[in-house]
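Researcher: Next entry: Cystathionine beta-lyase (Vibrio japonicus).
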Amino acid sequence: MSEGKKTQYITAGRDKKWTNGVVNPPVQRASTVVFNTVAEKHHAGVNRANKTLFYGRRGTTTHFAFQEAMTEIEGGAGCALYPCGTAAISNAILSFVEAGDHILMVDTCYEPTRDFCDKILKKLGVETTYYDPVIGKGIEDLIQPNTKVLFLESPGSITMEVQDVPTLASIAHDHDIIVMLDNTWAAGVNFSPFEHGVDISIQAATKYIVGHSDVMLGTAVASEKYWDQLREQSYLMGQCVSPDDAYLGLRGIRTLDVRLRQHAENSLKVAKWLQSRPEVDHVRHPALETCPGHEFFKRDFTGGNGLFSFVLKTSYPRATTALLDGMKHFSMGYSWGGFESLILANEPKSFNSLRTVANPNFEGTLIRLHVGLEDVEDLIADLEQGFARYNALILEKESMA
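Model: Predicted structure:
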């Protein structure tokens, strides 16, 4: 009998060979692994890529347990570990491209991903074409003979567009193109990448996997076809993580289900409250019809989380600053996925430097929220007071006009 997903979060990576009789796999720190005989050394060398102690950079039992858990949860053949999500993205791409190649990158990608394409890949002779996240079947028109990678991020950073991953993946595979997905928003559990045609699923495990805003960590889970190359190329580029960080990632998995469900419940309540606010033009929460690609979220995802955006009807930076500066429960900070609530503002003109083909068609300020695990009534009250400060500046501006 197959185990349910909730049970899987508790049992994954807890094989007795990693736990050695205790509940959690212990933290095993090591650089040098010593061998008592030539035969032992030979055996480790032959099996160094298969969860066998060989050298610290290849991993310890703590890393092996975390990798096994991530592979089981996302459904691939193996998991490579990186010191952050950006490292996971850049090294996954570098593992499969060379000078003269071309990649297709979603225009709503994480900002460091764009910088990597424009500043590093370009220098290496790899060309990037950005595409609209809602392009659908039109992606075929952008494929070139030298296209090696189709990179997806769904929902998209900041503006939250949900992509039609199965359609895009199917077209890519018709052209023997590798499909990579930044699967951080779904935490690898609310969207099953390999069931929808993805070849390599990448996460900033810094966020929901760890869940406590205290570790930098990246993962890339690959299908059997691409696992060996991803593993070895990433190893050659020196990618490894602290066993302590791997342990905290593994520990975060145990509460992932309950945390995500509470984040999702809280965020949907806040999102629906925002829909009733006169200051708000629309809400970009994948679970709501006002979010681009909502139909794909309903079809492909099994749940949500705490991250979404909403757009104000106007853009007035002074008023936006007043809203942000007095928040009690929403802190301003990058990243997300921890237990705390966060808030950031993006003025429409800021997208001019972030987008090339998918500039958003709204004129008001976009506010991105990460709704944490606080009492949702306190969060709504915090936002309500923020709107009061915001409106006071709007009225002042109008009275001076």
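Model: Note for the record: The chain has 13 helices and twelve strands.
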